[in-house]
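CORE FACILITY INTAKE
Project code: CF-77B
Contact: R.S. (postdoc)
Sample description: multi-component assembly, two entities in total
Requested service: structural model of the whole complex
Turnaround: standard
Below are the sequence entries exactly as provided by the requester. Do not edit them.
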Amino acid sequence: MVDGRWQSDVLVVGGGIAAAFAACEARAQGADVLLVDQAHLGRSGCTALASGVFQAYEPGDDDDEWVRSETSPLTNQRLFKANLGRLYESRLFLEQAGLKLVKDGKRVLRVGATRMSTPHTAMMAEGGPQLGLALRAETLRRGVRVVNRVAIMGLLTSDGQLPTDGRVVGAVGVGTRDGRVHEFQTKAVVMCTGPFSLAYQPHSSTYSTRHMPINASGAGIHAMWEAGAVIGKVELGYGSPRAAEFQCAPAMEMLTALGGHTVWMNARGERFLTEEFRKQEWGRSSVMTAVMREYSEGRGPVGVNVSHFTPEQRRLLQQVVPIVIGNFESAGYNLAEDTVPYTVGAPLGHGTSGGGARINEHGETSLSGLYAAGNCCDGAYISLGQSLHICALTGRWAGERAGAAAAGQDLLPVDPAQVALHERRYLQPLAGPAARPLRQVQDRVARVRLSLTPTLNAQNLEAAMVQVDSIIDELHRVGARDARELAQCNALRASLPIMRVILQVLHHRTESRGNLIRDDYPYMDNDQWLVHTVAQRASTGETRVWDIPIPEEWWISRPNPGKTLHPYFEGATA
Amino acid sequence: MKLHLDIDQAVCTACGVCVDSCPTDVIRQREDGKPYPAFLADCQVCFLCVIDCPVDAISIAQTRSRTDAIGPQMLDGAVVTGRPTASRQSGLHG
């Protein structure tokens, strides 16, 4: 039984920065906008853990340096350059929404950069958590209607089919507190549901990778994949370093900005993030690779040490990244003296590197009526790292186009049979006994992820695919006793097929690049792999994987041909 | 790692802000409106409840038992050395 029926011009799914920008922009087009989130707008997804820094472009900056810093041979360099002005507009929007930035007089104070000679990182004066509050206030002020604590689990289509040959006409969600089913009928759906991860893992789980996405399960990516949207960029965006034993936002950007690469220390007391790693495709990827190598060559555990920071720098850290620093302090670490242990996340979850529905520069996916922004999409490959600034930008793209498109559209009917099908599926765990407890399945998934460290190869990827298939086969035996367990079961059910797609894509891509590190193909191969690897679910249920060549016109500077050994393997001693 | 999430009932005004703040919906309200960590196992230690509480009634502490626990498990098969340290504990608010 459907408990709630909602109609809108534009349905925005998600509660982070991309969703807020999309909703506000669609409102600016005159659309009636409904935003639905599984948590609470402004306190959801990656944005809830925003580390308090973001890349802020200012007029007068060296555009080419921005392009060099944020793009790679796989990215759309021209599109990035063309959007620099909009990055500046995003900063103005955020300030107008009430976000407080650290300033030097009237100018925004910006600090260092991993790959740029000029500072480009702005800091939030009241820390990352204030960002969500400002976004929530602005979204509500603009008249966006908001439904909290409802998780969107599937899409509705004009032909009642998944995958569809028609258009997306709505979505179905389940209340995370009460298990009630909601039907959303709309002219345009904008998915802003964040990256793929495994949500709801226990805090004590040492092998979970809840470094960032917090409550993101990839359910949004799953819904788009299931409807037949083309999925891209999942192969380059998995894993991330995180503070060992803690679950907190990575503060690397902040630490790196304030202290350069000198904050990383191995068990021998050596600082190790060398120049060769720092030249890699993008900042976080190079940190991860370097950390991983220290571990694999016996120089772990590694940690972050900021004891050489001035008291003023440490005070700034406390102010701007309170979540991370709070985590350290609550576990008894004294940043003025102690090295805080860091490790790398296991593969098959991706944070702020994006990956999901393939979009164009208007946020349009391959399905009509469906738009995507933030880390549940490929960001039109505008940048390899999809941090706050890119999520805001893609949110704007999608909101603008979806809002404008809705003006010329009628609400299409939803198919009651399709709604009932979704409903049966989401409520199914309530029917059966908990034959296979959720935790047991999560532990099995965690073991699959561990089998893929430190490096990938055809053998461990194939073994992992067999494992994931067998876990998917067992899912119908996982029961739920209440609405909360139901939400957890559904999150798990949605994440596993996406995990399977990522494995398939990783297996297909026979090279090493960025976070993709294969010991059977250790070279970054610009002859064969200057392509995007994408996946799509066919009507047979099979997932097809293929490559799309990168258009010549994307490049401002043409990448060098040939093969280069991935820095992970360069001079390796193990 | 052991986690402690304490809500000082004497200070709490039962405003419900922390219930909305929690991304993973760990905190729920009792009948009298006072919040409690109903699903602590799902706490992600994001501190948003601590930060959002208008009267500073919430504190979080983590007890760590070993600093090298992650290494060997994260990188299966790799040789990872580490020196265990004594357990210690402290709260954000003392």
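Facility notes:
- Chain A touches chain B through 54 residues (CB under 8 Å).
- Residues 483-508 of chain A form the longest helix (26 residues).
Invoice: internal transfer
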